[in-house]
Amino acid sequence: MTAKQYQVYTDGACQNNQAPGGQPGGWACVFVDGPSYSGFDAKTTNNRMELTAAIEALKHTEPGAEITVYSDSAYVVNAFLQNWFKGWHQRGWKNAKGQSVENQDLWRELYALAAQRRVTWVKVKGHAGNHYNEMADKLAVEAIKKARGEIVQP
């Protein structure tokens, strides 16, 4: 039996990523030839939303599936392509500077989900006219606006 195959574009957005304590953020995942999902977090960062988008994409697939995840987040993609996890595991979830890995809760969840699937990670350039990447960005930004009451649902 052949594993189901997916292509999905993910993106995260944050209103003001530099604000202390976090700011409103949104995430989205857009499946090519499939559904789209998005959501909101009241106090977050852009990196947390990028991770959440990837987590949600994998959650909407079954274990064993073949998934190509396209993301404009070097933070997410490079963790897998450069296997940052190996060093994190060896150092007890500390980074190369000996500090706790930021967003460790989300990294652990994403790593566990990815380990149950065959995932190919692809870095795409953001805001460069890629239809699905632009769609994911738009949905992530709209999630922020909806949560803030700036977009009224029909």
Short description:
The chain has helices spanning 46-59, 74-81, 84-90, 104-115, 131-147; strands at 5-14, 23-31, 36-44, 66-71, 118-123. It is built from five helices and five strands. It has 154 residues and is α/β, with parallel strands linked by helices.
What does the model show?
By secondary structure, the protein is an alpha/beta fold. The chain has one domain (5-147): Ribonuclease H-like superfamily/Ribonuclease H (Nucleotidyltransferase, domain 5). It contains five helices and five strands; from the N terminus they run E-E-E-H-E-H-H-H-E-H. The chain has helices at 46-59, 74-81, 84-90, 104-115, 131-147, and strands at residues 5-14, 23-31, 36-44, 66-71, 118-123. It has a five-stranded mixed sheet, sandwiched between helices. Strand 1 and strand 2 form a beta hairpin. Helix 1 (46-59) packs parallel to helix 4.
Write the layout of secondary structure elements.
Blueprint: E1 5-14, E2 23-31, E3 36-44, H1 46-59, E4 66-71, H2 74-81, H3 84-90, H4 104-115, E5 118-123, H5 131-147
Parallel strand pairs: 1-4, 4-5
Antiparallel strand pairs: 1-2, 2-3
Subunit structure: Monomer.
Protein name: Ribonuclease H
Family: Belongs to the RNase H family.
Q: DSSP strand (E) fraction?
A: 25-35%
Q: Count the domains.
A: 1
Radius of gyration: 16 Å
Structural class: alpha/beta
CATH architecture label:
2-Layer Sandwich
Distance between the termini: 43 Å
Oligomer kind: single chain
Descriptive tags:
alpha/beta, 5-stranded mixed sheet, globular, 154 residues
